[in-house]
Amino acid sequence: MVVSQSAFALMVFTDRLFMSKIDALHIAAALGGGVTFFVSIAFFMGVIAYATALVAQYYGSGQYAKCPRVITQGLIIALLCQPLLLIVALLAAELFRLMGHLPEQIALERQYYFVLMAGSFFTLVKTCIASYFSGIARTRVVMISDVSGVIINIPLSYALIFGVWGMPELGIRGAALGTVVATIFTIGVYAVFYFTRVHRLRFAVLESLVLDKGILRRYLRLGLPSGFELFVGAATFNLFLLLFQSYGINEGAAMAIVFNWDMLNYVPLVGMNIAVTSMIGRYVGAGDMARTNEVISAGFVLALGYSFILALVFIFFRWEMMQVFATPEDDFGPIAALGSQMMIGLATYVLADAVILIASGTLRGAGDTHWLMNTSMLIHALMLIGQVVIIKVLHYGPIASWWTFVIMLLSLALVYLSRLLGNTWRQPKRLKRMLQE
Q: Some GO term, biological process aspect, for this entry: which one (predicted)?
């Protein structure tokens, strides 16, 4: 799962690296448009991605035939949400203007955003089937499929951005189109594994293509809170990002570069989060709570060890890491200077990210989704209010805004850790209710 998620990070990383070869405005636009796309589909993605825990629980309890039925219900959800996503796209595209971005940046952001939204159905389908294979512990399938998609995406996006190898020169639209085409290709690779004879027979795949109201109700009961949690977290982060970009092009470019390096830490940790969710769900389904402690311990050792090493790299090589994204323009110095200061904050919160993702993966695998939703929504809302006051009311500088964001992540890590160390999520009665259809 770490390799799989890292492949996705590499895809986004290279897209923004290609944008830096044009100018700083394209870097900022790719970040703003990309994050707004994620926010637009975050609720539906959060619901559908709960398939990992749901499938793992059925798998752990030996109900193999119900595992692929979860995919069918997820695909139904993905299809039904398309009209809503069309409305969301038309409304969300106005955010760039409301946040005070420059007209030339808005034009680029909208191009990138609308191409990605046109492929949103494929993104949700890919999320659903990847969550299924994670849930049945076939993570090698996820790795092979996602890496294959990246191998297609990187040269295709390069060709479409710069107009080489006979492709049209589409600029920032080419980066988004390359992502959509690679996503469709990845779904095809997943389908090959899904319909193999051995898999069809063991999981009764062909008999699973039906509406199962019991599974669908349980999917929505536990998945909707996950969807709200992901949406609110992504929405507040996106609004913070757009507010921060209102400082100017240099500040927006600096943030885009810092978050590009942040992906080296965050995205592999998302892989660990998915793995923990799957393993916890499996042992909860099997009624073996003693093994959950081993999963939690292993998750923290791996995540904190990895993040600690990266924190040292971010501190000692921050200037050199900023220079990787040097633009052809002459004024990259101010961008690098601000970004190198922000890298210190990044090094501070990467360990908090490790705690948040391992703890939330554990709680999600055990079905504690309502608590995660309420807690995440509250802390992220407080962070956003603080950012509005700092940026728009008090008119403090970008460093003050950045450290407020860092403090929010540290606070969230402490709250999640406190819940994990308690016994509420382990109570047998709560687990029994959670497993009911």
A: monoatomic ion transport
